[in-house]
Structure formats: C-alpha cells, structure tokens
Amino acid sequence: MNTVKPESIALFCLTPGGVILAKRLATMLPLTCFTSEKLLEEGFVPFTDGFASTARDAFAQYSALIFIVATGIAVRVLAPLVNDKFSDPAVVVIDERGQHVISLLSGHAGGANALTRYLAGMLDADPVITTATDVNEMAALDTLAFQLNARMNDFRTAVKIVNQMLVSQQRVGLWWDDALAAEVSHCDKRGFIIVTDLQQLPELDALICITLRADLPALPVPHWKLVPQRVVAGIGCRRDTPFPLLANLLTRQLEAQRIDPLALKAIGSVNLKKDEQGLIQLASCCRVPFETFTADALREQEHRFPASSFVRQTVGVGSVSGPAAWLLSQGQLLGETLREQGVTITLGVSH
Predict the structure, then answer these.
(1) Which regions of the chain does DSSP assign to beta strands (E)?
(2) Which residues contact 142 (CB under 8 A, 6 or more apart)?
(3) By the number of CB atoms within 10 A of the CB, which of 37, 75, 129, 253 ranks highest?
(4) How far is Cα 3 from Cα 150, in angstroms, rounded to an integer?
(5) 276: helix, strand or coil
C-alpha cells in the first residue's frame, strides 16, 4: 500500500510554460523537478535517456508523480507500468496554465485525490476527481484504512464490495473500540452509519468494525474488521533462534492479549541482532519493519525491567525485549513479558 510522502514527489514538464508552473509549485512542495536539457534551469534535473525512460524509472522510485503535460502523454508513458491501486504511486496531471489538476492514478490508496485537492487549492485551479465515492461526497473504505494505517483480511475484495455499497446508498455501519475514538474522530466517515453498541445494531446491510481485538461477538450482518497497526513487539533471543519458534511464541503472546495479528506494527530488538535471520524472517512474514536499538539506548530504560547478567555479558544490556517495546511504544506496554526457550517478548501499544 502506497502513501504520498511530500519528500518523495517527482514532477515532469516538457514546455517553457510547464517549467514556469513547476517553479511555482516548487515553492509550495519539496519536489524533484525533471525537464529536458534544452529547458534546464537551476534546481531542475535533466532527463536520463529521455522523458519516457526517466518517468518510468520514477514510477518505481517515488510515491507520487506530477505531470505538467497532456493527459494522453502521461497515460501512454505509464500504461505499461500500471499494476494496481494499492501499490502504484499517485499520479496527477496539470495543464501548463494551471487551470485543471487531474487525479489520474491511485486516487485513494496512493493519495492522488488528496494531492489533487491540495495542488488545486494552491493554484486556485479546478480539481478533477472521478472516483465514485468522492463524486458522491462519501468516504471510502480504502481511504479510511490508510488514514488509520490499518489492515484487513482480503482487503481488495472488501474495498470493492463496501465502496460499491456506499455509492449505492446501502446502509453500511461503522463501529470502533473506545480506545481508538480519538484517532477515528479525525477520519472521513461520510456515508457510514455510526454504530455505538454492537449489541444493539440499527438496520444495516453491512458493518465495518475498527478494532485491535482478535475476536468480536457474533454479528447478524456481513462485517469486516479493520485493524489499525498499533501493537509493537520487543524481542530478545539467543543467537540462531529458529523462525518457527519465534513465530509460535509471538502468536501465543498476541493470543494471550486477545490481539489480532494484523495489529502488529513493528518488531524491535538490540543492534547486535540486526542480522538475526529468525527475527528478519519474522518481521518479513508479519509485513512489519524490524527496528533495532543501540545497547546504550536500551540501557536507559533497563532499570524498568528484570535484568540478566548473561544477557548483559552477551549484548551489553541486561534486558532487551522490555526496553525495546518501551521505546517503540513510548512506554505504553501491554501485558506481561513472555520468557520461554531463550526468547523474551514484550508487547506495547503505539498510537
């Protein structure tokens, strides 16, 4: 899933008018501006092997692309590269007079719609957005997921079904755990019917539940769990601890706290473990980053946790999992530390 990062936007222009507009946009956003050798000015980067080649390289390297060209040119250049809306970068097209800003590709998942609105506002231009939920002034499930940094089983199918229900004016409910209320309050919920009690549902055609819970009560309508990634796991282990053991123990620790595995956000350990293959494979399997901390950084939090002289002699700090989870969650720990077969796992919740 792709999200637009302001520092990762490439802009392409082919005409003098496009260069003028690009310079104007560069005062509003941090951009990497590409143009031809003939039009090159200070701050611009020349095409490498031509416009099409440079644009196609940027498609894989940047989270958003802005083209100050005819829409057809952008389409023809990028057509062979288009994969799906959950992984393609945002693509926006602007005419060189800055009158229209068009969301061309990855409107929700990539953030092209949001970027289009921002640029149109800065340029006093007309935003051109054609996604059905936006046209009907409704929220979208994929937008909600990205706003919450949340995951869902069979996400593509759910997005297709739920967004179609919303634009068809069917009754789609939205419920969330109380602990997530502050985060959900900032999200776009237009078109959803807000549900406050799972035991007393209004008349609905479907329901979206925003929760970290592994299990929900039986519900009488089709429903999907949208799981924000909020849970972190600090892990300490002996050298060459096998991946299956780590995976089994992490699963047990999450189950003990009744946490959905999709809620996992990051795995952390000490720098000495940065090449530990079991931990690397575990993070890859869970599709989360593996973050390591220096022994000095962990030592600052060591006094909060039971320490082991053996661990201190081995890695330079008496406790790994607890301090790592503390740093990843800003001190919001969850449950007791698991200690088994040379592995320690401490969970935390990061908002």
Answers:
(1) 9-13, 31-35, 44-46, 64-68, 90-94, 100-105, 126-128, 150-151, 172-176, 193-194, 206-210, 223-228, 231-237, 264-270, 290-293, 333-340, 343-349
(2) 85, 86, 108, 109, 155, 159, 163
(3) 253
(4) 13
(5) coil
